[in-house]
Amino acid sequence: MNITLRPYQEKAVADLRQAFRDGYKAPLLASPTGSGKTIEYCYIAENAAKRGNSIMILVHRKEILQQTSDQLDAIGVDHGVICPGRSMTPELVQVASVQTLVRRLGRVREPQILVIDEAHHSAAGSWKKILAAFQHSYLLGVTATPCRLDGKCLGVMSGGHFDKLILGPTVADLVADGWLSQPVVYAPPSGVNTKNIHTKFGDYVKPEIEALMDKPKITGCAVEHYLRICPGAPAIAFCTSIQHSEHVCAAFREAGVTAESLDGTMTDQQRHYRIEGLGTGKFHVLTSCEIVSEGTDIPVVTAAILLRPTQSMGLFLQQVGRCLRPHPAKKHSIILDHVGNCFRHGLPDENREWTLEGTMRRKKNSQPAIRYRQCERCYFVHLPAPTCPHCGYIYPVDGREVEQVDGQLEVIDGVKALAMRREQKRLQGRAASEEDLYQLGLSRGYKDWNARAWARHVMAARSRKRAMA
Q1: Sign of CA dihedral 439, 444, 449, 454
Q2: 362 pLDDT tier (thresholds 50, 70, 90)
Q3: What is the pLDDT of residues 164-210, one digit of tens each?
Q4: Do residue 179 and residue 157 come from a single domain?
Q5: 242 shares a domain with 166
Q6: 349 Cβ partners below 8 Å, 6+ apart?
Q7: Residue 60 · residue 99 · CB < 8 Å
């Protein structure tokens, strides 16, 4: 069975092939959650095997291993599976669990191509041991979030493994083309204050955020907003700990919502039962502690309930990505952000500039340069605007003193108005960078935060236009 790739997937595969032809040994594909990276690397594996090349797909979660194996089965690719309880077989295509492979390195033949799923983890201990053992393999990394919590780069220039970044479509591109659903973000008014929470290894200390979040008032607020905004919608609540997850689950049940808790201590059968139950509608809410943030594909999931503050943009995007896949049963996706993660990291469909050079760690409690507005009526979060684009509420204008300036007013007729608009458009077209647009916005009288938001919006629109050309 042949795979029919979407246009952007065809481009990604072509770009990866060109990178290898250009002499790169380890390209990294960055493409959003829900864009179909598993299909892309299974397609590559199928074609590599047809040419007699050996290829190994490295994954770190049981759910991702099973999904990858199922996808290979669906397209008729014979493959082996390296995981607990399975004997190794000689097929050219292998799907390997990181945890199992690192214990069997002495018994495994080095592949010609090594695919690393969720490649932002590749600097961790087990991955590094595998990569050290497979020094002669070509690498192909795939991830939705090519960033690390510690700010270190993934590129070879500073100790990483990848030498070429291949950019897939943006979330906004995929939403516009119908491949992802439109995210609608709500930030309920019971936001949490992380000012006194300490940081360790780049993120909030878990016992401290658990103590902060595992409170009846906050949990009750989460249940209340779910029942008001998206009652009955399949939802995943991302919690700070197993105990927190169980408490949130109990609160939903007390409110009459069918819910289950999920964590890493459960058996495969228990985890499968809960994940499958959410997909089939047996449960409405699944509360999770670090299990379904990556790789779990349940398209019917409509809402993500954020109950874990994090300084990790990668974790934030992986979590909200769980509900962005399109499904006939939902009109859009809903993010209930009770912890202010969207204010730390931006909206899910914001355009982000990924790089292999690493990122500077943001100072504790600092906010992104772009600011957002929250509707005081419906709590919808959006880019600055005079009205709420979700409910239509018109924001009151603050009173201000009028500054008098010299000059005579003149009548602006249609011809003059058209000439002025053309001049504004010409100046905007000549602005080559986001900084140029920002300065132009200031010259038009925009406030600093509004000028930055407008500049970023224009640059994102230009990127989408170029991609569609």
Answers
A1: negative
A2: very low
A3: 999 999 999 999 999 999 999 888 665 678 888 888 877 889 999 99
A4: no
A5: no
A6: 170, 171, 172, 175, 182, 183
A7: yes
pTM (2 decimals)?
A: 0.75
The enclosing domain of 123 has a CATH number of 3.40.50.300
134: tokens are: 């497979």
Residues 441 and 454: beta-carbon distance below 8 Å: yes
Beta carbons within 8 Å of 47's beta carbon, 6+ residues apart: none
Please tell me whether residues 200 and 111 are part of one structural domain: no
- Same domain flag for 131 and 234: no
Strands of the sheet containing 138-143, edge to edge, are 79-82, 93-97, 55-59, 113-117, 138-143, 27-30, 164-167
For 398-412, the pLDDT digits (tens) are 543 433 334 333 333
Count: domains in the chain: 3
Give mean pLDDT, residues 3-30. 94
Q: Are residues 377 and 258 in the same domain?
A: yes
Same domain, 294 and 279: yes
219-to-159, 180, 189, 239, 250 alpha-carbon distances in Å: 42, 29, 13, 10, 10
The residue among 38, 15, 39 whose CA lies nearest residue 28 is: 15
Provide the domain limits for residue 283: 175-350+367-382
Reading the block at residue 285, the tokens are: 């809410």
| pLDDT tier, 451 (very low <50, low <70, confident <90, very high otherwise) | low
Q: If we measure between CA atoms, which residue out of 204, 208, 152 comes closest to residue 361? A: 152
Helix (H, G, I), strand (E, B) or coil at 301: coil
Report the Cα–Cα distance between both ends of the chain, in Å, rounded. 31
**Residue 403 is assigned to a structural domain of this protein:** no
Last residue of a domain, one of 123, 141, 170: 170
Who contacts 264 (Cβ-Cβ below 8 Å, separation ≥6)?
289, 290, 291
Instruction: State pLDDT tens for residues 239-259.
Output: 999 999 999 999 999 999 999
